[in-house]
Amino acid sequence: MVHTSKAADRVMKNISRFIEAKLGLKVNMTKSKVSKPNEIKYLGFGFYKDRASNSYKAKPHAVSVSKLKIKLRKLTSRSWSVAWEYRCLKIKQLMTGWINYYRIGNFKIKCREIDRWIRFRIRMYLWKKWKTIKNREKQLRKLGAYSWQAKTWSCCRKGYARCATTFLRIVKNDLLKRKGLPSMTDLY
Questions:
Q1: Rounded Cα gap, residues 182 and 41, in angstroms
Q2: What is the pLDDT of residues 141-161, one digit of tens each?
């Protein structure tokens, strides 16, 4: 927040002296540092320069976003056999807590990105859950696929990820929302 690194070192020295002498606290010099705002991670937040207002604004740090994705990966795992309602409840709890904490930051684009990724993983989970060709065909017909689409898609031998991208046309976002899967963008 100052113009030169020399001024930043002087401010750091004066603040450290004030904290130790006047307040009687000990400053941990290994954790305290002088750096640019966009290089700092503070309580899970990172900072970026907003060109429009010419000031620094908060956003969730990349490390915090990657930790969220690790937790969501566990909750959307295809091998985790729990009820759909429980899975959706846990995802909603995690999202609500994360958004309530980082609400003061700007991360709407990141929310959309994470939403897209979660829905993709849920579609892979559903494809694996249906297991057999007959069941897949039956479920696809229930969701509104034509009979020829259901037959060809259910016989697909591609991987779960490839099938989940094809499957996107049938299992739409509003269907997942009605079934209880929360949207991070809506919570934001």
A1: 28
A2: 888 888 888 888 888 888 888
How many whole angstroms separate alpha carbon 63 and alpha carbon 57? 17
C-alpha–C-alpha distance, residues 59 and 44, integer Å: 9
The crossing angle, in degrees rounded to 10, of helices 108-130 and 62-75 is 20
CA distance 30 to 186: 40
Predicted TM-score (pTM) above 0.90: no
Q: pLDDT tens for residues 64-104?
A: 999 999 999 999 998 888 998 999 999 999 999 999 998 88
| One-letter amino acid of 152 | T
Integer Cα distance of 126 and 39 in angstroms: 40
Closest CA to 175 of 93, 119, 95, 113: 119
**Which one-letter amino acid corresponds to residue 81?**
S
**Is the per-residue pLDDT at 2 higher than 80?**
no
Residues in the chain: 188
Does residue 60 contact residue 47 with C-beta atoms inside 8 Å? no
Taking all residues of the chain, what is their mean pLDDT, rounded to a whole number?
Answer: 87
| Under 8 Å between Cβ of 142 and 154 | no
